[in-house]
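Subgroup meeting minutes
Present: P.N., E.W., G.H.
Scribe: E.W.

1. P.N. recapped why we're keeping a running log of single-chain structure predictions: easier to compare across weeks, and new members can see raw inputs and outputs side by side.
2. G.H. added today's entry (124 aa).
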Amino acid sequence: QVQLVESGGGLVQAGGSLRLSCAASGRTVSSYSLGWFRQAPGKEREFVAAISWNGGNTYYADSVKGRFTISRDNAKNTMYLQMNSLKPEDTAVYYCAADRTYWAPTRETTYDYWGQGTQVTVSS
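Output recorded in log:
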């Protein structure tokens, strides 16, 4: 079983930056695809970014492309999301997820493990 814990969320002004971390425990996720999703109040959860097991492939939602960067450190069993040029519409709870089997980055249902989420609030 894999446990995922997000950290790094908080309150930031528009134009600012935050770096989210997702630490995995229970077993190594070095062979897993990893992803970030977010859910804003009153909205459905949506895909943000994903990274393949070795970091060779990354994929981003159009809304964050050029502003967010996903990365991973398999030695630390940790994934990151560097968020720059933040906008009020980026306000949401951010979740990390791990997929044992597939590279289907935007497909929520293929992810096997989920964290509890971390709140990101961007003020205007």
